[in-house]
């Protein structure tokens, strides 16, 4: 479905609760899943099916961020606070008073910033739980991860782009679904990709995240070359929450270990 949010037509993939009728149950818990860079809502599909098995009553919404997938978006507005404003606008447009936020990679910066913005606006309870999967750098992304020359090379060469994605989900099945993710990832607006990398470089919430009080969780893969290890440890420190490191998994547990990830997220949601 498409949802109007200010100047955007935001595409949202919805998985209704198993027992749902034609209209959403306003009492059903809602999880909003925010994807990472070079990706779309489709990176959440295996996880969506898995967590529906854990929580059949859960309504699952996975939007495409501006400039990604079916949300086309303008040439500007890609800073992390602006993406968070888009998300809050989406929650308002859908009349969602309380949600469980789950982010992956870039998406973790969006959900963390959203939680901070809602707290500043006097609505801290609007985010019931916060899960950060392969968390973004909370003190700014190092420059080695956003070189303009490398971005131009992968933009020009889909085979190089495919090789770049390989270590991002090293244990995900290399099937037709994976090839679709590669193709759609390479087709998206590269202006958005570059702008989001620039945004991650300057986004530095740091220990301000300790002000958040909802149940929180950081999850990373043991073999994540991008956001695991010290990056995940620092995010958990800033959020003052538990960190779970999944053995043998890379940057994308939502693709590589959806059942394990669903169990962890469902356990957190049950705490709310």
Please provide a brief summary of the model.
By secondary structure, this protein is of the alpha/beta class. It has helices at residues 45-54, 80-93, 106-120, 148-156, 158-165, 176-187, 190-202, 230-239, 253-256, 258-271, and strands at residues 2-5, 8-15, 30-34, 59-63, 99-104, 127-133, 216-221, 242-246.
Domain count: 1
The SS-based structural class is alpha/beta
Taken as a percent bin, the fraction of beta residues is: 15-25%
Largest sheet: 8 strands, mixed
Q: What is the CATH first-level class name?
A: Alpha Beta
The order of strands across the largest sheet is 1-2-4-3-5-6-7-8
Secondary-structure element order, N to C: EEEHEHEHEHHHHEHEHH
Overall mean pLDDT score?
A: 92
Low-confidence stretches: none
Number of strands: 8
| Proportion of helical residues | 40-55%
CATH 4th-level superfamily: Alpha/Beta hydrolase fold, catalytic domain
**Helical run tally:** 10
Radius of gyration: 17 Å
CATH topology: Rossmann fold
